[in-house]
Amino acid sequence: MPEYSLPYGFKNLTFNLPDNFQVDVLLPSSPKPIENPEQAILSALESPLGKASLLEFSGIESIGIAINDKTRPVPKQDVIAPLLNALKLLEVSEERITFFIGTGTHIMTADELPRILSQEIIDRYPVVIHDCDTSAMIDLGETARGTPIKINAEYYNCDLKITVGNVEPHHFMGFSGGVKTAAIGLASRETITQNHAMLTHPKAKTGIFHVNPMRQDLEEIGRKMGIHFSLSTILDEEKNILKVYFGDPQIVMKRAIPGIRENFGAQVSEPYDLVIASPGGAPKDINLYQAEKGLTQAANITRKGGWVVLVAACPEGSGSKKYENYVTNAGSHEAIIQQFKEGFFEVGPHKAYQIAEEAIKKNIVLVSDIPPERVNSWKITPSTPDLIEPLIKWISERLPEHARIAILPNATHTMTEVKK
Q: Is residue 243 part of a domain?
């Protein structure tokens, strides 16, 4: 029987599939990584999109650099060091250049900083870990959609505001990247909750940008925050840099999105009977909160009544106590969907809604390191890595004779779609 392997945490999980099934391995058609990423970063920094030069900001006294937290992949090639070298032109002292960790509603501690920043930067520059509940906020009014704009005040008050992150498919924002690192990552819980309450909107989907209400809401937040520059990369599955952009955040997104569609789109002729998917390994499967993004892409190409096996280590469990408390005490998946459609919304429990939307149409199994009884209490069928072979054998016996199976090694990074 053919053997297959999927990323699982920091290792791979291997399994076999019966010979009589059609099996498609769906990978993004990524181009080769940039041969000289350091030069590409330097070139981007020297010629910002939509701006004449960083020298426009000569004479400023403070710089704020917003970066993603531990739940987002960090490029293999260092993008921070070239950025800091470019900023030397502005002659701002190191103690006035502050890194802000855009945690959103996630939790991150100081001892976890080496996951995303070098020890040299941690030692030399101020680093602020944002807290959506306790950080001092500035009130910038409301967006056109009624979202209160309450943002980390220390970042907002910096003379030059920069975001650093990756552009990739996002299961309800359309795309990650650009201003999102700060407009959501450095926002208050109230701001995040109101924005994410648009989750049930039919246009809040992967690959939709200009008419996606959630994404356009945070674009407005980014403009009102006055974010000057975005340094954004497109990464392959190994976290190598494929493209790098620097400049006006909106122009950066405009340039990056066509490349995402081209390189990470996966169109299929018809839905599959079984999709076995990994979010892409660590850190994308650090917890269920993050791994669910891969579930969305897998479910997109699974037939009604079919099976989705999500292979995600989830060493940090669900990643949200609020999700656990809500889903454990909620009724059925149908009851969860009904409650959200009647107007209930809270960040954390919203993951229960996203999972329920798929679980009422497909059979979902989570293969993880989380104790099975906990997963079961979240209304998801549990399994463990050591049982992957018997699990697939059991599911295979329930599939049509000539079943179609898809393998998604990097589901979070893949924009799946059934051709219409």
A: no
